[in-house]
Amino acid sequence: MTQPIKLTLYRWAGSWGPFKVNIPCGECTLTKDIIKDVLVNELAGIPVEVEIKDWLSHWWEPLKHGAWHAPIVKVGDKIVSQGEALNRGVLVQKIIEQWTKQDNLKGNIVFGKAGCPHCVRAKSLLDKVGISYQYHDVVKESSALYRMIPEVKAHIGLKTPVTVPQIWLEGSYIGGADALEKWLETHLPETATNNVVNLK
Length: 200
Description:
Layout: E1 5-11, E2 15-16, E3 19-20, H1 26-40, E4 48-54, H2 60-63, E5 72-75, E6 78-82, H3 88-100, E7 109-112, H4 117-129, E8 134-137, H5 142-156, E9 166-169, E10 172-175, H6 177-187, H7 190-193
InterPro entries: GLR_AS (IPR011767), Glutaredoxin (IPR002109), Glutaredoxin_subgr (IPR014025), Thioredoxin-like_sf (IPR036249)
Pfam families: Glutaredoxin (PF00462)
Family: Belongs to the glutaredoxin family.
């Protein structure tokens, strides 16, 4: 069973002993708005549990992780941002990194990009044999890019460069367009690969 990713925002607010924050923090508000928008758009469908805490009332919690300047954003037990408005790309990357640890890719997926001839060939091969798939453009969808890279590296190794397309069929890693072609030769029934009828 998957657990929601825990995200904590420490904003410039709260009190501790005689000290109280009276001036609101604009970057804290921006960070909260960025988190909300990213969860609705780039990370839709990924369960994330958001907790907002007043920094001065909980200053020792982020300090244990080396952070002291609000706004502070923590994903799991790692600080991903502090002291400035959150970079949404960093947030997407860190949430996806956590999510890939507990969720496997399912179904038929092609990760690619526009203008890539090998991506076009892979999609054409799948279309030709009638295999439906989800297509994700890794240039336009940052969540797809950050999901693809660690998934592929787990199969090809950390030092091998990642190219596109990257293909999964029935939840299993296939590889690129050449690997797809070989997979189709061995996994499709004869009628799907040879539809010529001999009338003799």
